[in-house]
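Researcher: Checking consistency across runs. Here is DNA excision repair protein ERCC-8 again:
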Amino acid sequence: MLGFLSARQAGLEDPRRFRRAESTRRVLGLELNKDRDVERIHSSGVNTLDIEPVERRYMLSGGSDGVIVLYDLENSSRQPYYTCKAVCSVGRNHPDVHKYSVETVQWYPHDTGMFTSSSFDKTLKVWDTNTLQTADVFNFEETVYSHHMSPVATKHCLVAVGTRGPKVQLCDLKSGSCSHILQVVFAGHKQEILAVSWSPRYDHILATASADSRVKLWDVRRASGCLITLDQNNGEKSQAAESANTAHNGKVNGLCFTSDGLHLLTVGTDNRMRLWNSSSGENTLELYSGSRDCNILAWVPSLYEPLPEEDETKTKSRLNPAFEDAWSSSDEEG
């Protein structure tokens, strides 16, 4: 590391190479916390976790046994070694428990009074945290693999749902119905949707990952929908025809935006992770090796420095029109 610093100071080394080396060193140095444990409630594997964004105190877990558990992460004992206790759970004896494996759980982004869960039993359930009863249930014809609510939306209450069919369904929490289906004959996915994620920067931009090796960005305000299909070759002619216009050489089973929404991280069954410019769709060519069973991603704020403040008019002039706010203002006018 001292050699990197010396070369950087002398101008002989690209600062980005040093940044990648330091990030890699930190990632490889990660290990489990020996001071904190979590009470074991699930009888089988845990598929999904989510920590509420308001207090960052409560965590949800969903397991392949269909059980959902709510944990309190706070160390009330003030002891250096402690176990996070389960506050409550939706167990096998609960009347509204999922019949099969729970694939995704997510807190309502704005308070802890509600959370959602989706399962292989072809349902998306909306839960009242206080009563631990279902407030609404969405039923689908296909197995549900993933769902996500926008963390920044103020003009819609849409939940994006990825299913075994090659279509993304948008469920409206206000009306209790599936309001829209993202499936265009030529621009849509060809196989099941394995992961979905809303942009934390624009409340109308949605990313989807599929078993057809493709990742797409959608503008849910538009009838045509699909904005970009990510291409790992950045438009350059590929020697392998099967990799043309695909994000990975295999199923894409995980994706997430960086916290600022400027980049998108994807992972595939080709044991690779790729980082993309979420506005242009460009592959940054920062390639990471993943494990063979990786299908969940979570973004941790990195070493990147904050963007300098820019003149708002100049910034807007460079934006793709799809990334500008064009929601109807009829609600405010009324």
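Researcher: Does this match what you'd expect to see?
Model: One thing to look at in this run: The radius of gyration is 21 Å.
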